[in-house]
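Contributing new records

If you add data, match the layout below exactly. Sequence lines come first and carry their own label; structure lines follow with theirs. Keep one chain per record. Anything else will be rejected by the validation script.
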Amino acid sequence: MQKIISYPLSIVYYVLFLFWLCLFHPIQWICFNVFGYNAHRWSVAILNLFLVRNTFILGTTYSFKGKEKLPKNVPLIIVANHQSLYDIPPLIWFLRDWHPKFISKKELGKGIPSVSYNLRHGGSALIDRKDGKQALSEIKKCGEFINKNNYSVVIFPEGTRGKTGVPKPFSVNGLKMLYKFAPDAYFAPVTINNSWKMSRFGTFPLGLGNRLEFQVHEPLKISDYTFEEIFERTEKIITENIKIK
C-alpha cells in the first residue's frame, strides 16, 4: 500500500526537487561571483533547507542530535556512514555553521544544477575513483584548505551507499590523507540511521514516513591519536550505533 501511495507523492517531490535545484543555480552564481564566499555558502545552506523540507511531502522527519559537541573555529573531519543521497542535505543544513565541504566523485561535478556548481566552487574535493594519484591529490588539497580556514569536510569512508543500512568496511586512504594534511583537525564521527529507507524501492517511488536520525559523537582530536587508533575508534563508534531494522 505504501508503494502505491508513494507514486503520486514521489512525482510531486521530484518536480519540486528539480525546481529548487534550478532556482538556486543562478542564485549561487550571483552569490559567488558578486558577493563572495560567505554569500555563496549561505545560498547553499538555504537551498539544502528547502531540500530537507521538500522531503516533508513524503512524511519524512529528522532527528539531528549532538552537534553541540562540535568545537568551533577548528577544522573538522566529519566521518559518517552513507545510506543514501538523503544523507547530504541534512548534513549541509544542520552543520552549516561548520562550512561543510565534501569528498565526492568527479562525475557529480558536472551536469547537476546547483549541486555541481557548489562542488566545483565551494571547496569540495572531486575525485576520480579510477585514478588513485588524482584522488589523493584532491583530498590533500581539501585537507590543507580546511586546516587553513577552520572549515569542515564530510567524508563517507564506505565509498558507496549501503542500500540496506548494513555498513561496509571503511576505506583507509582518504581518511589517512585528511589526518596527515589537516593536523589541527578533529575527527567527528556521525552515525546515520534510516536514510536507506528513503530508497527502499529504488529511486522511484520513494519510501514514506521515515524518521532520519543523525547522531554526532564526541570528536577526537587528531594530535591525541595515531592514525590507526583514531581510524579504529571512529569506525567502531559509528558502526556500533547503526540500527538495522
